[in-house]
Amino acid sequence: MTKTLLFALALAAPAFPQSTLKDSLVKHWKVTTDFTIAVAQKMPAAEYGFRPVPEELSFGQLMIQIGGANLNACALTSGQPRPAVPEKLAAALKDEKIDIDKELAIGFLTSSFEFCNAAVAAVTPAQLDAVVGTTRKMTGFEWLWSYFTHTAHHRGQAEVYLRVKGIKPPDYVF
Q1: Domain segments of the chain: what residues?
Q2: What SS3 class is residue 131?
Q3: Whole-prediction pTM value?
Q4: Partners of residue 139 on adjacent β-strands
Q5: In angstroms, rounded to a whole number, what is the distance separating the alpha carbons of residues 110 and 33?
Q6: How far is CA 132 from CA 11, 84, 148, in A?
Q7: Tens-of-pLDDT digits for all 174 residues of the chain?
Q8: Which of 2.60.40.10, 3.40.630.30, 1.20.120.450, 3.90.1150.10 would CATH assign to domain 20-164?
Q9: Are 25 and 73 within 8 A, CB to CB?
């Protein structure tokens, strides 16, 4: 009986779903997209300039920092051209004291995630292993993973900002 069961499992093994590193990246970039945009939408437009203390980025600045970093990491990894940053936001990425409009921030954040989701879905295993970058050299996987972490870091800050304002952040769905 045991030999028969083991033989049956061995034959069934190819039928079990196989998850690759790329599959995991595609899945989790989509999850982080949905959750980050949900966090961004929770803050009222009038509060996008909110900073808990003067030394911190504003809520809007957090959102565009995420978007700008997305573009860099996903362009470096995929080899696809980095989309342009809207002019108003390009200045704000250089000057952290510039307040950000909610609609513009969410539009930019959304388009950066759309670019990343397409780039991550198209990336090859060779691109994940390739060392890329100009001043910082990392593999494509390291670029994606480090900026996935960067997003989580800033999104966590944004959730604290929401709570300081008495707003419950959206529930995380894994």
Answers
A1: 20-164
A2: strand
A3: 0.85
A4: 131
A5: 8
A6: 41, 20, 17
A7: 555 544 444 444 444 444 588 898 999 999 999 999 999 999 999 999 999 999 999 999 999 999 999 999 999 999 999 999 999 899 998 999 998 999 999 999 999 999 999 999 999 999 999 999 888 899 999 999 999 999 999 999 999 999 999 999 999 877
A8: 1.20.120.450
A9: no
